[in-house]
Write a structure and sequence with these properties.
Elements (H helix, E strand, L loop, with lengths): L3 H21 L3 H13 L11 H17 L4 H6 L1 H8 L1 H16 L5 H10 L5 H11 L4 H28 L6 H30 L5 H21 L4 H15 L7 H31 L7 H24 L10 H9 L5 H8 L8 H30 L16
Length: about 400
């Protein structure tokens, strides 16, 4: 359990890591994962289980909401065809490449390969948003990356539910799949819109920043939990609520003073949750026995990168001759910045314990996430500097932190 004492210890470690990351010019998220690995081997390390419920119910809502309230709807609406293509077709292509490769190259069963391919296919909003904030990325590139990472996990979650049904022998029909997909998406958006509309109406009756912050907290968690209770997309619900509150607030429902207070509160909340989740991720990685599945891990890393490359460049080709064309440099960053993280771990940890191949899938997923966060996380900022997407770091200056 996450007790007050444990949270205080983890936040103290996170603060020290933030200071060291600035001094050593390391990405904050990478420093936290490495700090978590080190912390796991210390005698006073807290014994905490990073579970699917903890990630979904406690960590994801504030992270998604904080990113959503900062998304400008006019810019997102303009690039919505690109974002939706990457978040749907791109996820399907990526999952397909990984599934086929794990079956034919790693000799996994179709059930195990499909489950792994789907759960590892979506880029993770926690990792992506933290990394791009640290790197100081702004403009269309950041909008594309954040919006895709926030939307594609809904696709992966729906696909994962279908894959679970297939793995457990349930009957799957095309009509049933379409109905499930429509219900999950429409239901999630409806839950988020309903909660946001109700709270916007209430927020317009007060100019007390503390009350308005409380309203947004209720919106973030309330929309997510309501949607999950109704078995629709909690991520889409929180995303919808965040976009509505972030874009409709300036029209008079939320006072200017309240909006400033709300944004500051959620920036700090995202920092705290990011700190906890990356530290716990590192502590969990430290106790994985990767030696048992070294060959599948190597194959999986190669397949995940290949699938991401094919999905990113392939989807962007579709818009090459239109006004929505994505620059080559942006495509490179979209490809290499497609980090995996907490979402993949949550889906893996949610696999039924009765599945005979569960341990192999979970361990391989953890290894891919570790590679993604550490290797890609360490190299994404130099890549963007080399491509001219961010300015070179002045000599002696620290790397920007998400905090």
């Amino acid at each position: 359990m996450l007790t007050i004492e444990t949270v205080e210890l983890l936040l103290l470690v996170a603060t020290v890591v933030a200071m060291l990351a600035r001094r050593w010019r390391l990405p904050y998220s990478v420093g936290l994962v490495l700090g978590g690995i080190l912390l796991a081997w210390l005698p006073f390390a807290p014994d905490i289980a990073l579970t699917r419920e903890l990630i979904f119910n406690a960590f994801l809502p504030p992270l998604i909401f904080e990113a959503a309230i900062c998304i400008a709807w006019p810019a997102l609406r303009k690039d919505l065809p690109v974002v939706l293509t990457l978040a749907t077709l791109g996820v399907v292509v990526s999952a397909g490449v990984t599934t086929l490769g794990m079956h034919y190259l790693a000799h996994w069963s179709w059930q195990a390969a499909l489950l792994f391919g789907v759960l590892i296919s979506a880029t993770d909003p926690v990792s992506v948003i933290a990394t791009f904030k640290e790197a100081g990325v702004h403009g269309r590139l950041r909008e594309l990356v954040e919006a895709e990472s926030l939307l594609n996990d809904s696709t992966a979650a729906v696909g994962f539910a279908i894959a679970i049904a297939f793995a457990t022998g349930a009957t799957i029909t095309p009509l049933g799949t379409v109905q499930f997909l429509a219900l999950t998406i429409v239901g999630g958006v409806a839950c988020g819109a309903a909660v946001a509309a109700a709270l916007l109406a209430l927020a317009g009756r007060t100019e007390d920043p503390l009350v308005e912050i409380t309203f947004t907290t209720v919106a973030a968690y309330g929309s997510f939990l309501l949607a999950e209770q109704l078995e629709v997309s909690g991520v889409l619900a929180t995303l919808t609520a965040g976009i509505m509150l972030g874009n409709l607030g300036p029209l008079g429902a939320i006072s200017p003073k309240g909006r400033e207070a709300v944004e500051s509160f959620w920036e700090y909340a995202a920092f705290v949750v990011n700190s906890l989740i990356f530290l716990l991720m590192g502590m969990l990685e430290a106790h994985q026995n990767f030696s048992r599945v070294l060959l599948p891990i190597g194959i999986a890393i190669g397949l995940v990168l290949a699938g991401r490359a094919l999905s990113t460049y392939g989807c962007c080709v579709l818009f090459g001759s239109s006004s929505l064309r994505v620059k080559a440099n942006h495509q490179h960053v979209l490809f290499w910045g497609g980090l995996r993280g907490a979402l993949a771990l949550a889906l893996a940890l949610g696999l039924p314990t009765s599945l005979p191949y569960r341990d192999a899938v979970v361990t391989t997923a953890f290894a891919v996430v570790a590679f993604s966060v550490i290797v890609q996380g360490l190299s994404i900022t130099p890549l963007m500097r080399g491509l001219g997407e961010i300015a070179p770091a002045p000599s002696g200056s620290p790397v920007e932190s998400s905090g």
